[in-house]
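Teaching note: in complex prediction, the entire set of molecules is handled at once rather than each chain in isolation. The prompt given to students was simply: 'Predict the structure of this complex.' The entities are:
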Amino acid sequence: MNEQEKAEVNLSTEEKFKEAARIVFTKKGYAATKTRDIAEQAGLNLALLNYYFRSKEKLFEIIMIEKVQQLFAFISPALNDTNTSLEEKIDWVAVNYIEMLTKNPDLPIFVLSEIRTNPERFAKIIQLNTFVLKSHFVKQLAERKPGINPVQLFLNFLGMLIFPFIAKPVFHSTSAMSDDMFNQLLEDRKTLVPKWMKLMLE
Amino acid sequence: MNEQEKAEVNLSTEEKFKEAARIVFTKKGYAATKTRDIAEQAGLNLALLNYYFRSKEKLFEIIMIEKVQQLFAFISPALNDTNTSLEEKIDWVAVNYIEMLTKNPDLPIFVLSEIRTNPERFAKIIQLNTFVLKSHFVKQLAERKPGINPVQLFLNFLGMLIFPFIAKPVFHSTSAMSDDMFNQLLEDRKTLVPKWMKLMLE
DNA sequence: AAATTATTTAATCATTTGATTAAAGTCGAT
DNA sequence: ATCGACTTTAATCAAATGATTAAATAATTT
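The expected output is the structure of the full assembly:
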């Protein structure tokens, strides 16, 4: 029994359910996910879901809060760091965000799609996005290009980081590009996206 | 009874159902859409859905084919026009795609999310995407910037056009920006995106 | 060890959902 | 007006789904 197996054995039932829910909700979305799917993924009895979380919806909310935080709040500290330059922020965020998204390629489409379906429901959680928009980073953008709404540049940055992950299943399902090649392309963007951003900031 | 009302009266039951399905599927996605939702939206009897389309799934397929075409094939002719320069293509696509997306803001998230959920299911339809990747446009990109995979630049272009529409509900639900302001920002991108693309192509 | 509490199990329930059915209504041809 | 084909209606069905229940089991407390 190696270390990983030990860790798995020690997972509480509650945690096993959450882990299963992360996988299944992210893959299928809330509506298409059955409670039986989650129980099966967790290898646990269906009734435990209600015992531990009261409802499918409550479990979803827990996972969704995590995932929204992951997508939006991940970069928030870096964006609000007053000790780093605009260029430094761009470099750091590009590398680390792409790395995070590479490990969670379905995160963006999952979160954005659920928000689209129930916008009001997540308004409070995403309030964190307001901190991103009022970040030091956005302030720096405004100073660098005074004639352009900094949100434009912010959308470009975020879009260049996120959109390829959203588009990935399109490339995959059409065999338009091998997975290896696409992943390499994503990796290359760690340096390319900052380069393009800096062009826009000249 | 004005012209519009006349047109509506003449719509066949089948067409009324399709129109309702476009609205509801696009808003809620396949899984969260009930056949009763569609019937209600159409103001028609539920059983007619099966009479005309045999199943929810078949109706969905019809709508999805349309929507995939709209998202991917809309720009295909322009991208394959051998008589226009790279810059001309960029200008035209930016204006017309943003205009199309402004009228169908939910299109991208709907299509991309459904593809994510059932990638294999739409592979044949999206084969059209291969024609985009092998387009004259992508060839032109490769010639202009020989050191960079043209798909990178293509992803940037598409991402700068599409991503803000995907992100719109986030801005809306958090009141991070008024709808008027956000729409203006989208409108501005008709000229800004080509400008940024051209910077990347220098 | 016994009692109490917590967790798990498998069956069941109440409601929802896509689909079917049979009858009624409409339309066009004769 | 009648007939046949097509369309529509409202009720019903069969299966699925989130949730509940009661009993059994396991863990903790006394």
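Point out the following to students. Residues 1-8 of chain A have pLDDT under 50 and may be disordered. Residues 150-173 of chain A form the longest helix (24 residues).
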